[in-house]
Amino acid sequence: MNIIVAADRNWAIGHDNRLLVSIPSDMKFFRETTSGKVVVMGRKTLESFPNGLPLKNRTNIVLTGNRSYKVKDAVLCYSMEALLEELKKYNSEDIYVIGGDSIYHQLLSYCDTAHVTKIDHVYEADSWFPNLDQMPEWEITADSDEQTYFDLEFRFLKYERREPKE
Question: pTM of the prediction?
């Protein structure tokens, strides 16, 4: 499984249920990478999308503890066990965990690839991604040239687990 995230210098990813910054080339990378694939998210992440609707051209799977929560065009899972069972239906390489922070923390151990847009800035934040640089099992296997968006500098990094889970 894959994880895809944009994080600042301190691995912050959001504030008030919103992304810290919207960088067009990062959004394009996200769209191109996840189109036609399976995206896994929490309810609050889904609700942060335009009109709270699932992403087009993807299988949207939402993990929520709220059994009365309903949304059209998404698969709802009400427990981690149900989610893991649902994910068995798909090719692991086609699954992308897209947030938020509690979903990232719960599913990181099931993932072997992380696509990180690392933004060289520190934002005010209330949600964070685990710091992969402090986890010896993760290593950077691809690093883009430095990109800029106005005065922001960022890179597209690919981390891979040293010993992929079987």
Answer: 0.95
